[in-house]
User: Which sequence fits this backbone?
């Protein structure tokens, strides 16, 4: 009873709001409200070959399967959730999204063989400034659901400029020779999922993938939380 009363007092002074719509969360709701939960723009691509994500990456590097959990639209709930994760310290949002992605992939025959998850790295300087790498936080959520995560398999060599306002060509140039393998011995002959928060042009994923594919016998899969138009 005391714990319930304390929870109500906390909600009074520090109201919990939905990361999708910013409305107050009701008792029993976590991260997003039930209305947003049932209205999330899931792609349902995980069991579909030649889906939008795969066609965007096709011919750029070798992979077995690729997917995104959600569609990203400007000013939509997915953008708000990812903004909270990346810029407002809402790590719990990333963990929640990682768990959701993990549950989706665990029910997909196309991703059933994945053995390791490798999140796209941030440069140490940017990670220190932000306090964390959002892709690693998402991977933590996947780890809670049983996936094995190797956050140090790749490293970022240069603190290159943000991709946000760049054209497709500028994004591609911006990530050339930015990533390098690190402690990759465990990846030899393994089925590896490359993980990022948002797929836009795919330039960052391509740069990371080309490094990972230098590992002998590796089989590559790709997943992001969201897929944006570009």
Assistant:
């Amino acid at each position: 009873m005391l714990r319930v009363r304390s929870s109500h007092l906390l909600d009074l002074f520090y109201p919990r709001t939905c990361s999708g719509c910013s409305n107050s969360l009701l008792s029993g709701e976590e991260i997003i409200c039930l209305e947003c939960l049932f209205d999330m723009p899931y792609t349902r691509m995980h069991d579909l070959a030649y889906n939008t994500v795969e066609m965007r990456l096709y011919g750029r590097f070798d992979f077995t399967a690729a997917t995104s959990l959600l569609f990203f639209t400007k000013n939509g709930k997915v953008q708000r959730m990812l903004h909270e994760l990346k810029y407002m310290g809402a790590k719990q949002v990333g963990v929640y999204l990682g768990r959701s992605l993990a549950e989706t992939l665990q029910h997909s025959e196309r991703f059933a063989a994945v053995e390791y998850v490798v999140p796209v790295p941030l440069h140490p300087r940017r990670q220190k400034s932000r306090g964390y790498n959002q892709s690693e936080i998402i991977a933590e959520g996947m780890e809670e659901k049983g996936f094995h995560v190797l956050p140090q398999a790749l490293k970022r060599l240069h603190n290159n400029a943000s991709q946000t306002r760049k054209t497709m060509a500028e994004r591609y140039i911006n990530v050339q020779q930015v990533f390098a393998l690190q402690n990759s011995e465990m990846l030899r002959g393994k089925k590896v999922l490359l993980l990022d928060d948002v797929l836009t042009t795919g330039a960052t994923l391509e740069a990371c993938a080309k490094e990972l594919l230098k590992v002998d016998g590796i089989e590559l899969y790709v997943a992001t939380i969201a897929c944006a138009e570009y």
Summary: The radius of gyration is 18 Å. The longest strand covers residues 219-228. The chain is about 35% helix and 15% strand.
